[in-house]
Amino acid sequence: MMYSLTPPVQLQGIIDLPTSKSISNRALLLSSLANNRLPLTCVAICDDTRVMQAALQHTTQIIDIGAAGTAMRFLTAYFATQDGTWTLTGSERMKQRPIKLLVEALNSLGADIRYLEKEGFPPLEISGQPLQGGELHLQGNVSSQYISALLMIAPTMQQGMTLTLEGTVISRPYIRMTLNMMEAFGVQAAWKDQRIIVKPQPYHPSAFVVESDWSAASYWYGMAALIPNTELTLPGLQQNSLQGDSKCAELFASLGVTSRFSPEGVVITSTGNTVSFFSYNFVDQPDLAQTVVVTCCLLGVPFRFEGLHSLTIKETDRIAALMNELVKIGYLVNNPEDGVLEWNGERTFPSTPAVIDTYDDHRMAMAFAIASLRHPVIIAHPEVVSKSYPTFWDDLKQVGFVLENN
Looking at 47, 48, 245, 287, which residue is catalytic? Predict the structure, then answer.
């Protein structure tokens, strides 16, 4: 399937965003650990949460999580604590995504996890059992999903867990989100400097409401930056959010988008006032990087973005994918060193139309949909948005985009 996109002249309306996938997956796992029968409200409806929900129902010993990276990390830790023998597998891309650090950490705490194919990668065979817990040291620059997975099962361990993060800690907002949500389910943890202490203690049932998704909002911020006189209402977004990606509002203020918050959500409008050069470290908000990179190119704003190391092990190598696809619409972006993307304004002749490959990556599809505001584009495999934002194309049509099957 391919979609060609024709954008509207003006962008106005109300967009009912999906709720946060990151919060939903944590809430589902914590609710299971708490034997919770109270309601979880507004859980995201997308591929990633569906596989989490199915896995947590324990209807089979063989769990295929497809391309859901969060589910792979969280469920590896979860099933290490659940009686029985479990096989955890996924898509071919998932079998290329490393999990060795998490497996080694869990095994050091008393887990019994083995690799079924390639050393250090899924699929895994997990023999669930009570974990002893204890002291654990990890580099702070590992995926926050590893850290969150360990933290959520820590209170179930016989000794709890004392986690020392060494060196630079990346993605702090995701760790903070996890600890805040653990507290919502009755578990207290102490985080001071580089050390997080979680004592053995029970989770408690709790009703929980999931916020709208700031990562999904970023695509609308990108479009607002490019269309004059935009006014969009995005209900359910909170200024004081659990999500690190709420930084989106501040980032896009530099690209000419203002945010007006109310208890109901946020109204965004375009001003056209952009910075002349954009420098930022995305270490805490890696999922916003693709949107901001594409938007800056389309606005003609040169940039240097750092802290992108984790992009290479996402659904695809997002740094390589961005560079490959931006060339098609005429922008020569460079990767001068590990974890860095920069653009000095250099252009080349674009393809017309540009067929954008999406690499089985939902964020590539949505970030490059924004490119249709400046260049004729065709999005290949647009169905990949089902991973996090299944209604994205319908929402585009609602505000006046014309989508045609090619």
Answer: 287
